[in-house]
Design goal:
Helix content is 49%, strand content 24%. It has 7 helices and 9 strands. A hairpin with a 2-residue loop joins β8 and β9. The radius of gyration is 18 Å and the shape is elongated.
Length: 172
């Protein structure tokens, strides 16, 4: 299992032709690869650094010893893994039941701090497309459509929500 001290990672599943589906973005203070620590099997996804990142390796034996010694840590880890399962079920639901515009609306609502989504330098339209399970051209059209409808305003490194109720209707 790994602990992120600083930086950002993306966790992806890659197809044989190289197309990525972003499963999650991870930042400082988060852990990943718990599957490997608990099952002894390789993780089915890949973590990729998006910027200089400091990561600590937590060996399986150490993790297991800590969990036996501190049951509250085990409870937090189980809760964290359960939230990730819920996130993955939501991703399957989004990819199979929502349009790209609906997925984008939902992502904007969930990711915005207040009515603003700050996009780090690495959060390009290609990354956004990989997160939404589509291609950059389709994301550009969806962003343009939402902006033309007055639901959002797109600036270089941020997206501002202008009509939250319009996005909520699209996201359901």
């Amino acid at each position: 299992m790994y602990y992120i001290q600083a930086g950002w990672l993306k966790v992806v599943k890659t197809s044989p032709d190289g197309r990525e589906q972003v499963l999650r973005f991870l930042g400082a203070g988060e852990v990943f690869n718990a599957i490997g620590a608990f099952t002894g099997r390789p993780n089915p996804a890949t973590a990729i650094a998006l910027e200089p990142t400091g990561v600590w390796l937590l060996r399986r034996e150490v993790v297991m010893s800590l969990l036996r010694a501190q049951p509250e840590m085990a409870q937090r880890l189980i809760e964290n893994m359960a939230r990730r399962v819920i996130d993955l079920v939501g991703l399957v639901e989004d990819l199979s039941l929502r349009t790209v515009t609906g997925r984008l609306a939902r992502l904007l609502l969930e990711s915005a701090n207040g009515d603003v989504l700050h996009r780090p330098r690495w959060y390009t339209q290609a990354e956004l497309a990989a997160r939404l399970g589509t291609v950059p051209d389709v994301v550009q059209r969806a962003l343009s459509g939402l902006a033309a409808d007055g639901a959002i305003e797109v600036e270089r490194h941020l997206i501002r929500i202008r009509d939250r109720s319009a996005l909520e209707r699209l996201a359901t």
